[in-house]
């Protein structure tokens, strides 16, 4: 997201960081340092908040940087594409997806159900029905090239 | 979709470890439960006919989807024309 700078506005920085493994070096360091935030502070707090999660798993987080250089951040669940690819046992998604292409992986509806349960814990999705979240997981699987079967 | 002799129609029978579905450090990948323990709507997610019927039953949602589709098409056309100038 482009940073909107101005003396009175908050700046939002979106990052994907491995749980428990944030460190001041790239990608975290320059992204935050350029906005005037001490990367070390963020890393300590981020690692503390994600200590209960599997180490290294990518976590999306949104950092709000206030004009006085203090910051707060919210962590969300790992990217859906990551969860799907892990469930299908593949490292990378399909390079391109067209109607006739063979799928690069396969997951079952039960995987979709569990992944949807993980995603629904996000604050943005808490009001959405689990069925709708599951539908969006299936759509993401399609973009990654993973087939969903019963 | 192959129907098996057993009552389990899912490709992951009960007891299979659902890989990748755990994000907690001290947790484990959950085990698949028998088919009947999952909500009914889950099995309809892949069924186009069932989804279409549900959409027809909800006219507001259907109208919303159609409007969004029209708007996106219109934006794409406008962008294309702009790029041609």
UniProtKB/TrEMBL annotation, chain A:
Entry GO MF terms: large ribosomal subunit rRNA binding; structural constituent of ribosome
Domain Large ribosomal subunit protein uL11 C-terminal positions: 76-148
One GO term describing the cellular component: mitochondrial large ribosomal subunit
Domain Large ribosomal subunit protein uL11 N-terminal: start-end pairs: 13-71
InterPro entries: Ribosomal_uL11, Ribosomal_uL11_bac-typ, Ribosomal_uL11_C, Ribosomal_uL11_C_sf, Ribosomal_uL11_N, Ribosomal_uL11_N_sf
Recorded superkingdom: Eukaryota
Keywords, alphabetical: Ribonucleoprotein, Ribosomal protein
Keyword Signal: no
One Pfam family here: Ribosomal_L11_N
GO biological process: translation
Family to which this protein belongs: Belongs to the universal ribosomal protein uL11 family.
The name this protein goes by in its record: Large ribosomal subunit protein uL11m
Natural source organism: Lipomyces tetrasporus
TrEMBL record, chain B:
Domain of life per record: Eukaryota
Chain intervals with Basic and acidic residues compositional bias: 52-63
Composition bias, Basic residues: 64-73
UniProt entry tagged with the keyword Transit peptide: yes
Protein's UniProt keywords contain Ribosomal protein: yes
MF terms in GO: structural constituent of ribosome
Keyword vocabulary terms for this entry: Mitochondrion, Ribonucleoprotein, Ribosomal protein, Transit peptide
Compartments reported by the entry: Mitochondrion
GO-annotated cellular components: mitochondrial large ribosomal subunit
Main location: mitochondrion
Protein's recorded name: Large ribosomal subunit protein mL54
Species: Lipomyces tetrasporus
